[in-house]
Design a protein that fits this description.
Blueprint: H1 2-27, E1 36-43, E2 49-56, H2 61-67, E3 71-76, E4 79-85, E5 88-89, E6 96-102, E7 105-106, E8 121-128
Parallel strand pairs: 1-8
Antiparallel strand pairs: 1-2, 3-4, 4-5, 6-7, 6-8
Length: about 130
Amino acid sequence: MKKKGIIAAAALLVLVCLGAGLLYMKFRPKTSQGEKEIQVTVIHGDGQEKVLDYRTDLEYLGQVLVEDELIQGQEGQYGLFIETVDQETADSSRQQWWCITKGGEQVNTSVDSTPIQDGDHFELTLKEGY
């Protein structure tokens, strides 16, 4: 009897995972093909801002920023972890990190899985404290 319960729970877990995967695939942010214009604002640790305009046919933000050599980082299990933007490197001993926002709203994807659309405006802000 106990074995049947474990098997049923495992089967339910697999079904839930499959369902979550299908929902993600259906509702994930879409990319757009063709030429797009986007704007990226870099907000440095001292508060200075640098605004960059891009015209590209690439589909993901990371592709644009790496190609332009604006960002550097390390690949991890969740994608590219940004360490340096516009030659300013986050200091992990001070708990600094680069935050990606789109129109002021935090982006919950890695830079290399953030799709871009024509007219998008992104911000890369050096933050302190986890």
